[in-house]
Amino acid sequence: MTALPTRSDRSVNVWLSAIVVLLIAGCDTQTSTKPQQWVSRDSDEMISPGHQEMLAMLNEIHAWGLQSDPFLGTQQLNSARRRLAELGLAKNAAHRQRVDAVIRVANQELRLGLIDKAIEHYSEARQTLPKIAEKLSSEDHQRYLFQIAIGYLRLAESENCVHCQTGESCILPISGGGLHGQKIGSEESIKVLEELLGLNPDHLAAKWLLNIASMTLGKYPEAVPEDYRIDPSKFAGEPFPKFLNNAKKMGIATLSLSGGVIADDFTGDGSIDLVVSDWSTNGQIRFFVNDGNGNFKDQTQATGLTGIFGGLNLVQADYNNDGHIDIFVLRGAWRGSLGRHPNSLLRNDGNGRFTDVTFDVGLGDVHYPTQTAAWYDINNDGHLDLYIGNEDFPSQLFVSDGEGHFTDIAKKAGVTNDRYAKAVSWGDFNNDGYVDLYVSNYGSANRLYRNNGDETFTDVAGELGVQSPLNGFAAWFWDFDNDGILDIFAASYNMSIEDVTAPFFDLPVKGELACLYKGSSEGTFKNVATEMNLTAAVDPMGANFGDLDNDGYLDFYLGTGYPAYESLMPNVMYHNRRGERFADVTFSGGFGHLQKGHAIVFADFRGKGENDVFIELGGAYPGDAFTNAYFSNPGFGNRAIRIKLRGEKSNRDGIGAKIQVDFSADGKDQTIYRWVNSGGSFGANPLIAHVGVGKAEMIQQIKITWPATGCHTVLKNVKVDGQLIVVNE
Predict the structure, then answer these.
(1) Which of 595, 594, 563, 559 is closest to 574 using CA atoms?
(2) Residue 542's closest CA among 235, 333, 397?
(3) Residues 162-188: pLDDT tens digits?
(4) Is 358 helix (H, G, I), strand (E, B) or coil?
(5) Which pLDDT band holds residue 614 (cuts at 50, 70, 90)?
């Protein structure tokens, strides 16, 4: 297998290229000792060598990945095709090895999006199976039928949801504009699923998908046999206003694989812009500028981002305190040692363009597979530091020197983790003035690193009982009950369609469940997930939180799924009932999209004082692309205020600041707390505190505690009209 290009290889190539340029230019009578700069492909503007080096490296990774990438490359398909050819058995031969090899080829073709070829092979296997059924074990027979059914169902999704979709497509329960016009895929899938259930009536995934396929044809529930039918009441949920998917109308329904998203004001005009990524090795990062009314224009080329490929997750910060928000791109996740791709730090130059400065600032000397990182000021020097949670490689803690350069001190600080990190989040859980770190790991215990105040940390997760779940993914610090004390949400990721769908058939869940750790003033935690009604298996990847109805309490949305095609499961929205419990409003609110959910943001894109929700959709394989969704808030009649901080001694955006908002509504005194950050672990909200205050017209007091100094800024008697308030330190 061809090895991935390393930075040292790339540096040699750049150096040799520079020599060639000098030799070609040697006939000129004037020479220069200045470093060579390269001309951008789309303008006359010169771009830096570091930016050019990244572009070249990403192109090499893409060229390597065309064959060798474990999710995107053709290597596994080629191997399956060779195996089929080597058998020397004729098409439709009634031989078990032929059927097995044909299905293996079809599975790989389906992964790569070669649907017509995959269906041709699935059809052959389907015709041959009855002839060899007596020679198969029941398990193998069921497995073959299930894979064939999945192939037909993906055909149905491709024809009706991917290439001919409406805002209702793939949103559970499927009805109206979500019904399929092209029916063959679902019809054939139903036939195969019913055959499978004839062999095993308890096949949970087959029963679930039979109900879904029947919905797409408008035949649910009547056409689903009673023994397999889901009670329609399971798709009702608690009452909640409907959010409509308007992504296509707004021009941001981009077709992509899994990826990240940032919502923030990158242009400084007060409107929330949108940046999305696609983890494919040639997936172009996209930059959408907001006109202030929620209308977006793709400005990717104009911002100099052409050629910046890949990235499963994104997170933003003004790393150099220049007043312009920058972008960090995370790459290589899930690929193990084959995922040692470089991350990217894209500096916002303040002139409408971005420059990749990864290698210039010390973040590109070594590459590890990752999808999670978080910015914070760990030593209260007013400069943001960066923790990167890596997968089965040492995690990194990059401390800023205040001059725009970073040094990895993770080993000295005791935070290398050395586990499969899937989420990282900062928060001062013991309120000692130094920010602490929670790391969610997949396949091993989570960690809570307590900041010792001297740039070292101690793992106290075991001592405080916050190590679970062991199959961790999404996680974050937040204050779900507005008591002014940080809590921790830690999701489980079992990758099991059976666990997710079991409650629909009134069956118990076998896998781990999420943990909601309620913090106390003593710095301890208690898992209150059951008391708060978080008892469903969800399998979330993308995850973020925000206030949907401006009642002051944080709701959260989980983007679900795993790479396999059978993981058709609804993304899940929980509405916070005033800190007393969470209500599942997935179906009543219109959030139950079946496509694989990745990065999520809550943001007031339309300037109405209401949070809309954007989710990046699409799977890991080239054949599992989908368009992103934008759920528009219908309005709840409540008010909100937005607070943007400008640090002086603290970091520019006030990341880590604690905001306390006191007001009276409905005859009751209330206090809401917010911490300035980008929200959850997969998807980045604006670095603006959005504070819902219900029906209140006046805020008695806003108290800001700045992160670097602990000093306070207090505003009195602030009128509420949905405005953005900018507060200087």
Answers:
(1) 559
(2) 333
(3) 876 788 999 999 999 999 999 999 999
(4) coil
(5) very high
